[in-house]
């Protein structure tokens, strides 16, 4: 099983600042990595897939990078609506298995 | 636009079987481009993939749950379903259904339904 590790668990950032979130895979997942945003009481929303491709309707301030085992989600200038929990998910060994990271909570500093 | 809606009992007794249905609108569950999946989230915790099904009926399950999970498709109703047997309190979670389009990332999600396991 591929284990996905996200860091930090919590990130405190001021509005307007840049946020950098990390996701590490226990073995290479190539570029088969997605990022999701989840706000309280809501379902997750797909932000990024293929490590760096923004999903439909996702603002340009969200960007993804990396390949292999190291990935980064960057939010260039945090807006109030961006404070949420972010998850990474690998789909390299699909089928048969998919795995999520444990999440990073982005909170207001 | 594709929309998904989970339905089923919100309370299940320990040792019984949890059964949920996901109704799809705005698209056909028979499309060859899609995988349909279930994901769960215990209160205050992260996301766990439960399993997925292809329109052809091929299924893939999380190894940690495989012995208890069954996912099936009902094309006549444009629905797919989850059954999780022998539930315990550890299975208490919000259960989401979702669709993967063209790759195994979850493009659209249902709103989720809370299932509590308690006597």
Structure description:
The complex is a heterodimer of chains A (109) and B (119). Chain A is mainly beta and 109 residues long. Helix content of chain A is 0%, strand content 49%. Chain A has no helices and eleven strands. Chain A has strands at 4-7, 10-13, 19-25, 33-38, 45-49, 53-54, 62-67, 70-75, 85-90, 99-100, 104-108. In chain A, the strands form two sheets. In chain A, strands 2, 4, 5, 6, 9, 10 and 11 form a seven-stranded mixed sheet that branches. Chain A has a four-stranded antiparallel sheet with strand order 1-3-8-7, with no helix packed on it. Chain A is globular and about 40 Å long. Chain B is mainly β and 119 residues long. Chain B is built from no helices and eleven strands. Chain B has strands at residues 3-7, 11-12, 18-25, 34-41, 48-54, 59-61, 69-74, 79-84, 93-101, 106-109, 113-117. In chain B, the strands form two sheets. In chain B, strands 2, 4, 5, 6, 9, 10 and 11 form a seven-stranded mixed sheet that branches. The termini of chain B are far apart. The chains are: A mainly beta (109), B mainly beta (119). The interface between A and B is medium-sized, with 25 and 23 residues.
Supply the key terms.
heterodimer; A: 109 residues; four-stranded antiparallel beta sheet; 0% helix; B: 119 residues; seven-stranded mixed beta sheet; 11 strands; globular
Specify the structural class of chain B.
mainly beta
Distance between the termini of chain A: 36 Å
Regions of chain A with pLDDT < 50 over 5+ consecutive residues? none
- Please provide the count of β strands of chain B: 11
Percent of residues in helices of chain A comes to under 10%
Tell me the distance between the termini of chain B. 39 Å
- Beta percentage of chain A is over 45%
Structure annotation, total helices of chain A: 0
> Low-confidence spans of chain B: pLDDT under 50, at least 5 residues?
none
> Which structural class best describes the helix and strand composition of chain A?
mainly beta
**Total DSSP helices of chain B:** 0
Oligomer: heterodimer
**What average pLDDT do the residues of chain A reach?**
96
The percent of residues in helical segments of chain B reads under 10%
């Amino acid at each position: 099983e591929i284990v996905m590790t996200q860091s930090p668990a919590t990130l405190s950032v001021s509005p307007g600042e840049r946020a950098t979130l990390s996701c590490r895979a226990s073995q290479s997942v190539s570029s088969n990595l997605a990022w999701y945003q989840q706000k309280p009481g809501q379902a997750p929303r797909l932000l990024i897939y293929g490590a760096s491709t923004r999903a439909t309707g996702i603002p340009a301030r969200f960007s993804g990078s990396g390949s292999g085992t190291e990935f980064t989600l960057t939010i260039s200038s945090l807006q109030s609506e961006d404070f949420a929990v972010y998850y990474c998910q690998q789909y390299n060994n699909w089928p048969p298995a998919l795995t999520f990271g444990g999440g990073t909570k982005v909170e207001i500093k | 636009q594709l929309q998904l809606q989970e339905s089923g009992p919100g309370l299940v007794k320990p040792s019984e079987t949890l059964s949920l249905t996901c109704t799809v609108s705005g698209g056909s569950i028979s499309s060859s481009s899609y995988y349909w999946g279930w994901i769960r989230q215990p209160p205050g915790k992260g996301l766990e993939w439960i399993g997925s099904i292809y329109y052809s009926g091929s299924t893939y399950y999380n190894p940690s749950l495989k012995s208890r999970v069954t996912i099936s498709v009902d094309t006549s109703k444009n629905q797919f379903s989850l059954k999780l047997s022998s539930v315990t309190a550890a299975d208490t979670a919000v259960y989401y259904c979702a669709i993967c389009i063209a790759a195994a990332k979850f493009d659209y999600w249902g709103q989720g339904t809370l299932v509590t396991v308690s006597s």
